[in-house]
Design brief:
By secondary structure, the chain is an alpha+beta fold. It has a five-stranded antiparallel β-sheet. The chain is globular.
Length: about 220
């Protein structure tokens, strides 16, 4: 089906059971592909349901990973992929912490979900990330306020592989129609800005999970 097209995935994309829902997603995939900016649709686990070519291009330089490819699960990519910081600028403070906050909220709503429990176990296996989740995250939320946790409207740095964009910023725009909401899905588009001319390269990560310090 159209919404299953794209790069080779390490796991199958979620597929709704309803034929009507599948047909809607096929048509929505065509709409998504017409968008010039990276755009992605994911479920409550951040499992990717749809993504467009611009999204795939943004992450085309990342290496393979068994569980944390951006086209499989965007949360896992941000937290666990060793190449995440080469694309997601100011990776720790501007991407990981807000996404950990969203993950914590998802655990409160869907604590028995096996996919979320699997992510939680992987967080627990990394002592630094576990400390950030249990200790640093509540402190960070109190310090920055609840608005910093929201994705919609946030401006965050990116490093695009296309030199026409390079080191730039994106505004995250949440634009989820009711039909997608009723399916339990969320759409997120990264509206790219003109490149920032900076000499410093992206911060490299340590081996293994993406780098995260206790805040």
């Amino acid at each position: 089906m159209a919404y299953q097209a794209g790069w080779q995935r390490s796991q199958p994309r979620p597929v709704p059971e309803s034929l009507e829902a599948q047909a809607y997603l096929q048509d929505y995939a065509a709409l998504l592909e017409a968008v010039a900016f990276p755009s992605v649709v994911f479920d409550h686990r951040w499992d990717v349901v749809l993504s467009n070519a611009a999204f795939e291009t943004l992450f085309s330089g990342v290496g393979p990973h068994p569980t944390a490819m951006p086209g499989d699960n965007f949360l896992r990519f941000a937290l666990f992929h060793p190449d995440a910081a080469t694309v997601l600028g100011e990776h720790e403070s501007r991407w990981c912490l807000p996404m950990l906050a969203h993950f914590a909220a998802a655990m409160e709503r869907h604590g028995q979900d096996r996919g979320l429990q699997s992510i939680r176990r992987d967080i627990a296996q990394d002592p630094i990330m576990e400390a950030a989740y249990r200790q640093g995250l509540p402190h960070w939320i109190r310090a920055v306020g609840p608005d910093a946790v929201e994705h919609d409207g946030a401006v965050r740095p990116l490093v695009h592989p296309d030199p026409r964009w390079g080191r730039t910023d994106c505004r995250i725009v949440g634009e989820t129609p009711k039909t997608l909401q009723d399916m339990g899905y969320t759409r997120m588009t990264l509206v790219l800005r003109e490149a920032r001319h900076m000499t410093a390269g992206p911060r490299r990560t340590r081996n293994g999970a993406a780098e995260l310090r206790v805040v």
